[in-house]
Amino acid sequence: MVSGTVDVTQELAAFLRTRRERLDPSDFGLPSRRRARRTPGLRREEVAELAGVSTDYIVRLEQARGLRPSADVVEALARALRLAPDERAYLFGLARQRPRDADKLATTAAPSLVRLVAGLSPLPAMLMNHRYDILAWNGEMARLLLDFGTLPPSQRNAMWLCLMHPGVRELYADRERVVREGVAHLRAAWAAHPEDQALSDLIAEFITRDEEFARLWGERDVKVNARGRKVLRHPELGKVTVDFETLTPLQDPDQLLVIYRAADEESRSALDGLRTR
């Protein structure tokens, strides 16, 4: 029976027991029947040895006696129990810990996501990580905003372009609002990824080089803006108004899939004309 709330101590205990009991001792080079095993799987002392902790510690965890294992211990248990990635993440969540590799940021897009971005054509689309690094884009987005492929990778960052690139600086009719929302997103990302030194360095660069960013950063606004409207002043098409939607791939939760749609008939005609160029 499932109650309305989760007792994480009990669930942690039950999860560790079930993962231990499903393991085959022969997979670890252990004798399968040195003496009769009363329960399936590995013994507690065997898991303790594999994880580098005491047997008593495993006993107390499996008996839900109020322990909260550290991130290092959770990682050791995940390796000892040969947990799949989703199971490992679940164990860290139950222990209220954060994996030490949680801030390892993808600097390239998975091939399936690259194909997805391309397949969203004729809608302009691009994929970013939480730093706003642009990882993938389709032709429509390149023709609408900028051909990102002509830039060095260090400049393929949406906030960098909005602050530093002359063409992009002039692209947004309501640039101050766009920058404000971007700063609020970066502050949320910065708090969620405290070990991401590259993000901290990027923010420090923006504060040093751009007075507007420094002022907005000092206001400490926090907001993740997943949808909205932008008015663009395209050098060839004139005024183009787009609605944007930001989605998160389930297996890549720190990545952002941004999709533009024309907000009115005039903008739809403009985007249709852009595709034929």
UniProtKB/TrEMBL annotation:
GO molecular function terms noted in the UniProt entry: DNA binding
InterPro entries, alphabetized: Cro/C1-type_HTH, Lambda_DNA-bd_dom_sf, MLTR_LBD
Record-linked SUPFAM superfamilies: lambda repressor-like DNA-binding domains
CDD domains registered for this protein in UniProt: HTH_XRE
All copies of domain HTH cro/C1-type, residue ranges: 34-88
PROSITE patterns: HTH_CROC1 (PS50943)
Gene3D superfamilies: 3.30.450.180, lambda repressor-like DNA-binding domains (1.10.260.40)
The protein, known as: XRE family transcriptional regulator
Classification lineage: Bacteria, Bacillati, Actinomycetota, Actinomycetes, Pseudonocardiales
